[in-house]
Specification:
The chain is an alpha+beta fold and 1253 residues long. 23% of the residues lie in helices and 27% in strands. This is Ubiquitin carboxyl-terminal hydrolase 40.
C-alpha cells in the first residue's frame, strides 16, 4: 500500500543511506476480514459467476448443507489421500464440505472455488467461459449423486429435490386414461406470452390440450382414432422446488437466439394445490416460500449472474436502509388509528366490498374457475342484487373490476374465465391473501414486513460483494436485461431449530471446525504482520549543510549521496518522534531543527509546508511513502534566506540572447553567455521564484532599458519562415511570473534597442521577428512545358534550379528567381507562367496564388515546385478542373480560371466554350467523396462563392436541363411482356436495349412536379416520343414499378397519390408496364407470379399473375385459401413455396397450425409480409397439386445449375482466402468477418466423477 514495507526494529525506526529496499507488492496483503454484513462472498475465476450463484444457494439451503456435513471421513475419505491411486476419495463432496465451512466460519470477505473446480476436472478454459446455471445445477447434482453412491447420502439429492409429475391422456369416448409418470429435478416454465409463474403453471397443469379434428388420438381400448384430452399433474412434491425460467429463445426469422425481457411476476409464497393430482392433503403440504433468486444480467451470448438469497438461519447482519426505517416509524405511529377502525372495516367488507364477495364465490367453486359471463348471475344469487345496480357506478363493469385486481384474480382462456390466484385462501376465508406482485408491493412496506415476519432477511450475493436488500428489490427482477432466471422455493413446513438461528457452526463437524480455526489463526497472524509492515514508510531526509541556494532553488553542493539519508519509520508515530530520531542521528546538530516537506522541480529542490505539530502522527501530517523532508534551521541555508510555499515555487525559463557572431561583433558584456545553437542564438537556463515580478527578472538578466519578449511561434516550423516574439508591455513588469502564466520551459528573448538596427531583427508594433540562418532554406523549381517532345523532355531534366527562399518570401519573388536561374527570361518573353505543385500520382495541383508568402501558401521549404505555362490566379480568382459527361480520369480534365464572383450560369457558358460544346441542355454537377458524379448545382444565378465552390474543385458538365425547383426528373423504362402477342411487339423491337436478354427498354426522361398525381405521371409517360405509337386507353391500363438495382421492387398504388407521398426522389428509376385491362390496386393487395408445377418433371407451367388481397388474411392460411379458390381445389391438396432467385432455392410456405386448447390464448399469426418470407410484389410462388403430383421438391434443373455455380464460387473464394491467410500468417492476426461478431464455439459443460461402486 505504501511501497517498500520494512520490518520494525527497536523504536520503529531504521535508517539506510541512499536508496531503500525494493518495494513489496500488494500480493503480500492478506485477505480482509468479513465486513459489516458478516457474510462471505466468492471470488470470480474469470467466468464462474454462475457457479458462485449456485454454490451460495446450496450453502443457504441448511438441510442440504447439514446432511452433507453429516457424512464423515469414514465414508468420504480424506483430501490428504486424494493423490494416492489406491485410495477411493470422494473429492467433490469433500471439497464442497470444505468450501461450505470456509464460507460459514472463515474470517475473510471472499472464498475461492479453485479447489472445487479442480475436483471437477476443469481447466482454465472452463473457468473462463460462462455456462448456463440451470445446466450446471443438473450436472452438479448428478455428480453429487454419483459421488455419494453406497453412502448414507446416496439418496440426498433425490429426497430433497426430486419430484414426480404424471401425464394423462383421457379418451372422450370411453373414458380410458393412459398415464406416464416422470421424475423431475426442476420445472422449466415458459416466459414468452405469459404474465407470471402462476399463469405458466396453470397452462402446464390445469389447461388441457385437446386432440380433435385432424389431430385425433388412437385409444388403446377403443382401438380407433378418437377425441381426447391431454393433461399433466404434480404427483409428488419435493421439499425444495427448483423452477427455471425459459428466458432464452430462438428467432427462426433472424436465425439467432434472443432473451425474453418482458415482465414476469413470481410470488414470495404460493400454493400448489390447484396443480397437484392429490387435493386432500393438508394446506401446508402445498405451500412454498421463495428463498433464492438467481439473476442474469445481459444477453443470450454473455452476461453476469448474481443471486438474491433469504437468510433462513439469520447468519448475516441486516440493517434496513434509511428510507425504510423512516417508513417503519411512520407506520407505527398510525398503528393505533388502524386498530380503532379495524372492527368497523371488517363489518363493512362483509356486505359492501365486492372483492370479498367475488372471492367467496370463486372459492366455493369445485372447478376453481368460473366463466366471466356467469359470475354476475352467481353474484345475484348470493346477494340478491345485480352488479349493475350495486357496484357498476363505483367500480365499472365486472370485467374491468377483475382486470384491476390481478393480485387476486387470474384471467384465463383468453379472458373468458376467471380463477383465484393459487395463493388465495380456502373458501371459508372472506378476504384473500395477496401474493407478491407489482400491484401488491406498495400496500405492504418492507418495514412492516420485518415486524411481522420470522426475522429472515434478503441479501444480494454478487461474487465477492454482499449487500443487504429488501423484498421490494425482488420486484425489480421481474423484467429487463437484468431479470430473474432461476427460482428456488422451500416448503413452508421446513422449520429451523432455535439453536441454528445465528449459529454458523451449527452441525459443522469437529475436523472442519478445527481446520477453519487454524486458518483463522493464520489469517490473524498475517494481518498483524502486514499491519506492521504496511505502516512502515520510507522518508528521504535532505540535510541543509550539504545544500546551496541558487536561482531560487536548492542544489546539492556535491554530487554524492551524502546529502540524502533514506529512513524507514512507522507512519503511526508522531512528528516529534521523527524529530527526536533525527536529533539522535545528527550528533553535531546545533540549534533549532525544522522539518519541511520538499519536492524536486525542474529548477531544483523547493520547500513547501513545515511540520510544526509534534503531537500529530505522520499519517495525519500527510507524510507518506517516498516523501522528501528538508532538515534545516527554518530560516536560511548557508546564510541565504529561502522562500517557502507554493507561491514561491521556482520556474525554469529558457533565455535567448543574440550571439556576437550573429550581430557581427566581438564578445561584449552580457553577450555570449551559454551555448550558441544552430540558429545562432545563445541559449541559457535561468530559474526564478514564481512570486518574483517580471521587473525583477529583467533586472537580473540585463539593463532596464532592454526589451523582454515571449515566444509566439516555434522557430523552424513547417513551411519555414522566421520566429515571432511578443514584447512584454510596461504594465506587465509589476506582475509575477505566476500571474503571467509562465511555466517551466517557456522561452524569453532579451534584446537591447540598438540590436534592432540589424537585418536579423525586425520590430512591427509589439512583435519582434527574428530571421535566423536556419530560416533561409531553398525551394527546387522545375520547368514543365505543356506539350514536350522527347528532346524537350530530355532537356527538361536539366532545367531545374534550387532557389533560396524563406517563409516570408512572396511566391512571385520565387518565380522571378527561378526564371533567372533557369535562364528562361528570353524564351518565355511575353508568355504567362505559374508555379504549381504535384501530388504523389503525378497530377498537377492548382497554381499557387503568387501574392501569398511561402508560409501562407502552406508550401514546405526544401520541396519542389513546377514552372508551368499559363496564368496564375489572383486573390479573387478560382482555378477549377472540369470534365464533360463522365467522372474525371487521367488526361481528360480541362482547366479554367474564373472570377469567384461569376455565376454558375456564366461559368457553365465559359466551360462549354472551352470544351467546344453547343446547346443549352447542359448543367454542372459536383464530384462526391468517392470521385463519382454527385449533386447538381441547382441555383444557376448564385455566384461560385455563394455556392461554396472552392479553389481546385472539380466540376462535371452533364447533358440535360435541370428540372425547376419542386420538379422531379425520372428515368423511365418500358417492360416488355414476352407473352404479349399484340402489335406492341413491333414497338418493343424498335426501342434500344440496355443489355442482351433484358426485359426492360429505356424510353426517356420525364420532368414532372412532385405534387403531381400518379395518374398525371402515367399520362405524361404516354407522351414520350418512344411511346407515341403505343395505344393506351386510360392511365389505369399502365402499371408503374419502382426499380431498385435494376430490378422491380414495388408497384406504385393510388391514382391520386402525389409523387412526393409515394416517396419518389429526383433521379429515381421507374418501369412502366402496359396492361390488357384496367387495374387499381389497394394498399393491401399483393401482385404475385404463380407457377403451377408440371407433374413428374422439374419444371413449371408459364407464370400467371395472381392478385391476392392480403388485407383479409395475410397469413399462409389465407394464401392457401385464395389459391385453392383460384384452382378449384382444397387447401389440403396444395403445397406452396416462395422462390429465392439469388440463392436458387425455394422456401416452403406451410399451412400447418398447431392444435391448441380452446381455452388457451391463441397468438396472432404472423403475416407473410413479415419474417421469414417478406412477401412483396412480383415474388414467384410455386404451386404443387398433390392430387396429381406427389413430388414435394420445388427446385428446377436451372435451380440446381445455379446452386452448383454458387458452391463453386464459394469454394474458390475459400481457396483464395486460405491461400492469402497462409502467405501472411506470420504478419497478420485474425480477421473480422463482416459485421457479424465472432463468438467462441460453445463447449458442453461436464464434471468428472470417479467410480465408487
Amino acid at each position: 500500500m505504501f511501497g517498500d514495507l520494512f520490518e520494525e526494529d527497536g523504536d520503529g525506526f531504521s535508517s539506510t543511506p541512499g536508496t531503500g529496499k525494493p518495494v513489496k507488492g500488494r500480493e503480500c496483503e492478506p485477505p480482509p476480514p468479513r465486513g459489516k454484513v458478516q457474510l462471505c462472498g466468492i471470488k470470480n475465476q474469470g467466468g464462474t459467476c454462475y457457479l458462485n450463484s449456485l454454490i451460495q444457494t446450496l450453502l443457504f439451503t441448511p438441510e442440504l448443507r447439514e446432511e452433507l456435513f453429516s457424512l464423515g471421513p469414514d465414508e468420504l475419505g480424506s483430501l490428504a489421500d486424494k493423490d494416492k491411486p489406491e485410495a477411493k476419495v470422494r473429492v467433490i463432496p469433500l471439497e464442497l464440505q470444505s468450501l461450505f465451512a470456509r464460507l460459514l466460519l472463515a474470517d475473510e470477505q471472499t472464498a475461492s472455488t479453485t479447489d472445487l473446480t479442480d475436483s471437477f476436472g476443469w481447466t482454465n478454459n472452463e473457468e473462463m467461459a460462462q455456462q448456463d446455471v440451470q445446466e450446471l445445477n443438473r450436472i452438479l447434482f448428478s455428480a453429487l449423486e454419483s459421488s455419494l453412491v453406497d453412502t448414507l447420502g446416496s439418496s440426498l439429492i433425490h429426497r430433497l429435490y426430486h419430484g414426480t409429475l404424471v401425464n394423462q391422456i383421457t379418451c372422450k369416448e370411453c373414458g380410458n386414461i393412459s398415464e406416464r409418470q416422470e421424475d423431475f429435478l426442476d420445472l422449466t416454465v415458459s416466459v414468452r406470452g405469459v404474465s407470471g409463474l402462476e399463469e405458466a403453471l396453470w397452462n402446464m397443469f390445469v389447461e388441457e390440450e385437446l386432440f380433435e379434428g385432424n389431430n385425433l388420438y388412437r385409444c388403446s381400448k377403443c382401438d380407433q382414432l378418437v377425441r381426447a384430452a391431454k393433461s399433466a399433474k404434480l404427483r409428488k412434491l419435493p421439499p425444495f422446488l427448483t423452477i427455471s425460467l425459459l428466458r432464452f429463445n430462438f428467432d427462426f426469422a433472424k436465425c439467432e437466439r434472443y432473451k425474453e425481457t418482458g415482465s414476469y411476476v413470481f410470488p414470495l409464497t404460493f400454493n400448489l394445490r390447484a396443480f397437484c393430482e392429490q387435493s386432500n392433503w393438508s394446506d401446508s403440504e402445498y405451500s412454498y416460500e421463495l428463498f433464492s433468486v438467481i439473476i442474469h444480467k445481459g444477453g443470450c451470448y454473455g452476461g453476469h449472474y448474481h443471486v438474491y438469497i433469504k437468510d433462513v438461519d439469520q447468519l448475516g447482519h441486516w440493517e434496513a436502509p434509511e428510507e425504510d426505517a423512516k417508513v417503519k416509524t411512520k407506520t407505527r405511529t398510525q398503528e393505533a388509528t388502524v386498530t380503532e377502525d379495524k372492527s368497523e372495516i371488517e363489518n363493512s367488507v362483509e356486505t359492501e366490498d365486492p372483492l370479498s364477495v367475488l372471492t367467496a364465490i370463486l372459492a366455493q367453486e369445485e372447478s376453481n374457475s368460473v366463466l366471466v359471463d356467469q359470475l354476475g348471475q352467481k353474484l345475484l344469487n348470493k346477494t340478491g342484487t345485480p352488479w349493475s345496480k350495486k357496484y357498476k357506478k363505483q367500480y365499472g363493469t365486472i370485467s374491468k373490476f377483475l382486470q384491476t385486481h390481478p393480485e387476486v384474480f387470474l384471467l384465463i382462456s383468453n379472458g373468458t374465465r376467471v380463477a383465484l390466484k393459487s395463493t388465495a385462501p380456502a373458501a371459508e376465508e372472506s378476504v384473500p391473501t395477496k401474493p407478491f406482485s407489482p400491484a401488491a408491493v406498495p400496500e405492504t412496506t418492507e418495514a412492516e414486513a420485518s415486524d411481522t415476519s420470522d426475522g429472515c432477511h434478503w441479501f444480494d450475493l454478487n461474487d465477492s460483494t454482499v449487500t443487504v436488500i429488501t423484498e421490494k428489490d425482488i420486484e425489480k427482477q421481474f423484467q429487463g436485461k437484468e431479470s430473474a432466471y432461476m427460482l428456488f422455493y422451500r416448503k413452508s413446513t421446513l422449520k429451523r431449530p432455535p439453536e441454528a438461528r445465528g449459529n454458523a457452526a451449527y452441525k459443522v463437524p469437529p475436523h472442519l471446525l478445527e481446520m477453519v480455526q487454524e486458518e483463522n489463526a493464520r489469517l490473524l497472524q498475517r494481518r498483524n504482520e502486514f499491519d506492521a509492515t504496511s505502516n512502515s514508510i520510507e522518508v528521504r531526509l535532505h540535510l541543509a549543510p550539504h545544500y546551496r541556494c541558487e536561482n531560487g532553488a536548492l542544489h546539492p553542493t556535491a554530487p554524492n549521496n551524502d546529502s540524502i539519508i533514506t529512513v524507514t519509520f512507522d507512519r503511526r508515530r508522531t512528528v516529534g518522534d521523527l524529530r527526536l530520531a533525527v536529533y539522535q542521528m545528527q550528533d553535531l546538530w546545533e540549534g533549532d531543527m525544522a522539518l519541511t516537506v520538499a519536492k524536486n522541480v525542474p529548477a531544483g529542490l523547493h520547500l513547501y509546508d513545515e511540520l510544526t505539530d509534534d503531537q500529530m502522527s505522520l499519517y495525519s501530517a500527510g507524510v507518506c511513502n517516498g516523501t522528501d523532508l528538508f532538515v534545516w534551521n527554518g530560516r536560511d541555508v548557508n546564510g541565504v534566506t529561502v522562500q517557502t510555499g507554493a507561491e514561491w515555487e521556482p520556474v525554469l525559463l529558457t533565455v535567448f540572447r543574440p550571439s556576437a557572431e550573429q550581430l557581427g561583433c566581438g564578445d561584449e558584456s552580457g553577450v555570449g553567455e551559454g551555448d550558441a545553437d544552430a540558429d545562432g542564438m545563445v541559449r541559457s537556463m535561468k530559474a526564478f521564484a514564481g512570486g518574483a515580478t517580471l521587473g525583477t527578472v529583467l533586472e537580473a538578466l540585463g539593463p532596464q532599458e532592454a526589451l523582454l519578449c515571449q515566444e509566439q511561434s516555434c522557430p523552424g516550423a513547417d513551411g519555414g519562415g522566421a520566429s515571432g516574439w511578443k514584447v512584454f508591455p510596461p504594465q506587465d513588469m509589476k506582475r509575477t511570473l505566476r500571474e503571467l502564466s509562465l511555466k517551466d520551459g517557456d522561452a524569453l528573448l532579451l534584446l537591447q534597442l540598438e540590436e534592432l538596427d540589424s537585418s536579423i531583427f525586425n520590430m512591427n508594433g509589439d512583435i519582434v521577428t527574428v530571421t535566423t540562418p536556419s530560416d533561409c532554406r531553398w525551394l527546387q523549381v522545375e520547368f514543365c512545358p505543356r506539350n514536350g517532345t522527347q528532346e524537350e523532355d530530355a532537356e527538361q531534366d536539366k532545367r531545374r534550379s534550387k532557389v533560396s527562399a524563406s517563409g516570408n518570401m512572396l511566391l512571385s519573388e520565387v518565380k522571378d528567381k527561378a526564371l533567372q536561374g533557369l535562364q528562361l527570361l528570353d524564351k518565355l518573353n511575353g508568355l504567362e507562367c505559374c508555379l504549381r505543385q504535384m501530388d504523389r500520382s503525378g497530377k498537377r495541383l492548382p497554381p499557387v496564388h503568387e501574392h501569398l508568402s511561402v508560409r501562407d501558401a502552406g508550401i514546405r521549404l526544401m520541396t519542389s515546385l513546377f514552372l508551368c505555362p499559363g496564368p496564375a490566379p489572383t486573390a479573387q480568382q478560382l482555378f477549377l478542373y472540369f470534365n464533360v459527361g463522365l467522372a474525371p480520369s487521367d488526361g481528360q480534365e480541362l482547366e479554367v480560371i474564373v472570377q469567384e464572383s461569376l455565376t454558375i450560369k456564366e461559368c457553365l457558358k465559359k466551360m462549354l466554350l472551352m470544351a467546344r460544346l453547343e446547346g443549352d441542355s447542359w448543367h454542372l454537377r459536383r464530384l462526391d467523396w468517392c470521385e463519382e458524379i454527385g449533386e447538381p448545382l441547382m441555383d444557376e444565378n448564385a455566384t461560385l462563392k455563394e455556392a461554396k465552390v472552392l479553389h481546385g474543385d472539380t466540376l462535371v458538365l452533364v447533358e440535360g436541363r435541370l428540372p425547376p425547383k419542386g420538379y422531379l426528373k425520372l428515368s423511365v423504362r418500358m417492360y416488355m411482356d414476352p407473352f404479349d402477342s399484340s402489335s406492341a411487339q413491333e414497338l418493343y423491337q424498335e426501342l434500344p436495349t440496355e443489355c442482351s436478354g433484358s426485359e426492360m427498354r429505356f424510353v426517356g426522361y420525364v420532368e414532372i412536379s412532385e405534387e403531381a398525381s400518379l395518374d398525371d405521371f402515367k399520362t405524361q409517360v404516354t407522351t414520350l416520343p418512344a411511346l407515341h405509337d403505343m395505344c393506351v386507353p386510360s392511365p389505369a391500363f399502365l402499371r408503374v414499378w419502382i426499380l431498385d438495382g435494376g430490378k422491380q421492387a414495388r408497384i406504385l398504388r393510388g391514382k391520386q397519390q402525389t409523387l412526393r407521398k409515394l416517396k419518389l426522389g429526383n433521379g429515381a428509376e421507374v418501369c412502366v408496364q402496359r396492361l390488357m385491362k384496367e387495374e387499381d390496386l389497394g394498399p393491401k393487395d399483393l401482385l404475385l407470379k404463380v407457377q403451377m408445377g408440371v407433374p413428374g418433371e422439374k419444371a413449371y407451367y408459364p407464370a400467371e399473375e395472381f392478385l391476392w388481397d392480403a388485407g383479409r388474411d395475410g397469413t399462409a392460411r389465407g394464401l392457401y385459401a385464395a389459391l385453392a379458390t383460384q384452382y378449384g381445389l382444397t387447401p389440403d391438396n396444395l403445397l406452396l413455396a416462395k422462390h429465392l432467385p439469388d440463392k436458387h432455392t425455394w422456401m416452403p410456405v406451410s399451412n400447418w397450425t398447431q392444435q391448441v386448447s380452446k381455452r388457451k390464448k391463441k397468438r396472432k399469426a404472423e403475416g407473410l409480409h413479415a419474417a421469414p418470407f417478406y412477401l412483396k410484389d412480383g415474388d414467384i410462388i410455386g404451386v404443387k397439386n398433390l392430387l396429381i403430383d406427389t413430388s414435394k421438391e420445388f427446385c428446377t434443373v436451372q435451380d440446381e445449375i445455379g446452386q452448383q455455380r454458387l458452391r463453386e464460387e464459394e469454394a474458390n473464394h475459400k481457396t483464395r482466402e486460405n491461400a492469402g491467410s497462409g502467405d501472411c500468417t506470420q504478419n497478420t492476426g485474425p480477421k473480422k468477418s463482416g459485421t457479424t461478431k465472432n463468438r467462441k464455439p460453445e463447449v458442453a459443460l461436464s464434471i468428472n466423477v470417479g467410480l465408487f461402486r
